[in-house]
Design brief:
With 431 residues, this protein is of the alpha+beta class. It has helices spanning 3-28, 41-56, 101-117, 135-138, 143-149, 156-159, 169-176, 180-185, 208-212, 251-272, 311-332, 351-363, 378-384, 409-430; strands spanning 34-36, 60-63, 69-73, 83-88, 91-95, 125-130, 197-203, 216-222, 224-234, 238-239, 278-286, 295-296, 299-308, 335-338, 342-344, 347-348, 368-373, 389-394. It has two domains: 3-223 and 346-430, Zn peptidases (Aminopeptidase, 3-Layer(aba) Sandwich); 225-344, Alpha-Beta Plaits. It has 14 helices and 18 strands.
Amino acid sequence: MNVEDMEIDIEAGLAFAEPLFDVIGERSFDGIGFTRAAYGPGEQMAHNIVAQAGRDLGLRVELDAALNLSMTLAGKDRNKPPLMIGSHLDAVPQGGNFDGLAGVLAGLAAVAAIRKSGRTLQRDLVVLAIRAEESAWFGAQHIGSRALLGTLPVSVLDAARRVDTGRKLVEHMHEAGVDIDRVRIGTPLRKPSAIGGYIELHIEQGPILVDQGLSIGVVQAIRGNRRCRHAVCRGTYGHSGTVPRIARQDAVVAVAELVSGMDELWRMIEEEEKGDLVLTFGQFFTDPGSHSVTTVPGQVTFSFDARSHSPITLQRVERELMKAADRIAARRGVTFEFAPLTGDQPVAMDMQFHETLLRGAEHLGLSAISLMSGAGHDAGDFAGAGVPSAMIFVRNDKGSHNPEEAMEMSDFAEGVRLLTWFVDHIDKELS
């Protein structure tokens, strides 16, 4: 297939996929942003529309036990491990319309382009719409992909609760139609060894492509993390006018000192050591039932998130966090609780896939760079399970997880061009 033929086919693919952004966006707009709750009506609406689009393309449409949606274009040899294009359809509360959705619709556009060309791939090509990627809903990451790969901790089913309802993950899954007994077994719904490769197109959620004036990035690795969703510092409440400084056990001042110290560690690692790290303290609250302008605060809750491409750096940050908390606690008469600290390891993308994408961008005349992903993605779970994986980033202004996500359709078109080229070439190379 030459570049000219591919251009014609890409236009046909885009014409099929692009209107779906508007349809799904209109039905998930809540007046402020786009909300598609994991294992809720919004996500289900998007899955229904995408599934029908798959049927319209003549694809075999199936659901696994966790309700991940597979849409398969049959290849010449059905016994060869398939190539998968995937992403998610849930969106954070009042988020944007492109995060996740762009990757699934890019997969449908690539399939439509390949079908229009009349070409039959050597292996099956599966477009995968994955459930419950966003941790904003249940506090658990990548539920659908981890259920598919057999890496979802079974304890999450009963421990995780959805933020808007307070109800358990297992309850929402049951209502949606999940085969709970099958998911509880904890074995893969699809064996990772039986997947030939996974590629995910996604909007960039940072500013690098916008700042450099480029439309496409090829992801080299995904940062790992250490985080605590609910940390607590406990001191002693007191009268703000009568308790002297030396006698105070002020939880706000203690946490402020911890934040300041960790920020200095971040500066040192980034500026002096040229290491990779981002740190975030958030959800910083005193107890509204106990605090007042005349009260020394006796309790603060907060969250902590550290991300890096280096597991050694993540281990160091966790160690320094605990040491700093112990020092501050001893000096200020407070206590810190980090329950629990969780984390994911950094994950590298497949080098062959990465180099093929860069070569494809050059061949197609696209200006693309290799870059890292600061956010987690389903691709990281596939890579961690041993599946050769890759990611394409598409330029997106105004960040993500907000209604102002601003991916241009012209940039999306370039991402689809590269994705389709990649599928065509990797299908031949894997054969």
